[in-house]
Amino acid sequence: MFFLSFLNSFSISMSFLHFPPWLHLIIFLSSLFIILKWKAAANKRKCNFPPSPPKIPIIGNLHQLGKLPHKSLWRLSQLYGPIMSLSLGRIEIIIISSVETARALLKIHDLQSCNRPQTHAIKKFSYNFLDIAFSPYSDYWREIRKICMLEFFSMKRVLSYKPIREQEVGLFIESISQSASCGAVVDLSEKSIALTAGVIFRIAFGKQFEGDGFHELISEVEALLGSYSASEFFPVPFVGEVFDWFSGRETRLERVFNEMNGLFQEVIDEHLCPQRPKPEQDDIIDVLLAISKNQVEPCSVVITHENIKAILLNLFLAGIETSSIILVWAMAELTRNSTLIKKVHEEIRNQVGNRGKVTEIDIEELPYLKMIMQETLRLHPLAPLLVPRKTISNFKIEGYDFYPKTTVQVKVWAIGRDPTCWKDPEEFLQERFCRELH
């Protein structure tokens, strides 16, 4: 019987050898996939992962985010703690929602979590990760960051752009005064965006900002960068691609990128034109083109037009809506509290006197105004979540395991409303920052 069984199994094995090679490959890869998934599941059972809300197959926790994800995440963190894991389709994310856990991530484990998620949209708009914000932690990132810090954000360079800032603020105030004199409604959001865009435009391009088209373009870029495509969410092959095709996301992505790339290339070409009048002051493109021209081979970072475009996009994304959002929220809080307005007016009049306008030097002598801005940032952060980070090695926070290639986001909106850190967290109380200013 044993001999017959052996012959039978041997004949089956021999018949397997006559299968087509492609079928052998499929069987091998399928078996390998099953083994790896089984081992991953076994390892996961041994690990101490952060708690997670119940998930639905395929979509994970997507259904629990709702129309206001930052508030939904805050409610979930009240149930599952300051370290919580979520599955958004096949994307695993850990949400940090307390001061202690955020400090542990951003200070103690900074180098272990300093990469960025690499989505299709990020890769496209960063010119294959040539920028600062989304470039992986590497020698390139360190070098390009050093160039930007020395050339754009040094005290000397910042002070050199002071006349531009003062001129644009003057135009901003004049525009509001004209609207007020004729009784017209003032859209502060629109005016503040025009102000910040005007400053960044002149610093980067060396010319005035005109029209709403560029702001709309940047808003579209932000929307695409801040979202995942369906193909990145869904684990089922080709399903996400079909969703993206029907939704028009890929078409929109290509259209917006081509518009942005065309605009940047047009401005670079203008700067390279021999007939261009020499400016009184070099703008950012002038500086980057000079670095590119004077490079000596071999060098660690070669500045090309793609590098310049990627850096420009970072400047516009970080500079336009961020400042305008804070300005609008601060004005909204002031209009809700007449006492605040009176105190700010009194402080400004005492400092400025009869000079008629506030200068940048005066701002350093306005502590009450500083408290208002700090409280505004606490209640209304620039974004509910910090830019996502991706871990590059193993570490633990409060006993929970963080593994390489894990996406982690810090929820600053929840931290600003944490009752263990702030008294009456939902109230606008600027005096809470009084000690820090004296």
UniProtKB/TrEMBL annotation:
Q: Which organism is it from?
A: Cucurbita maxima (Pumpkin)
Q: Which protein is depicted?
A: Cytochrome P450 71B10-like isoform X2
Q: rRNA-binding as a keyword?
A: no
> Which is one Pfam family of this protein?
p450
Q: Which UniProt keywords apply?
A: Heme, Iron, Membrane, Metal-binding, Monooxygenase, Oxidoreductase, Transmembrane, Transmembrane helix
Annotated GO MF terms: heme binding; iron ion binding; monooxygenase activity; oxidoreductase activity, acting on paired donors, with incorporation or reduction of molecular oxygen
* Membrane-crossing residue ranges in chain numbering: 12-36, 311-332
* Domain of life of the organism encoding this protein: Eukaryota
List, separated by semicolons, the cofactors it needs. heme
**What lineage does the source organism belong to?**
Eukaryota, Viridiplantae, Streptophyta, Embryophyta, Tracheophyta
**Family per record:** Belongs to the cytochrome P450 family.
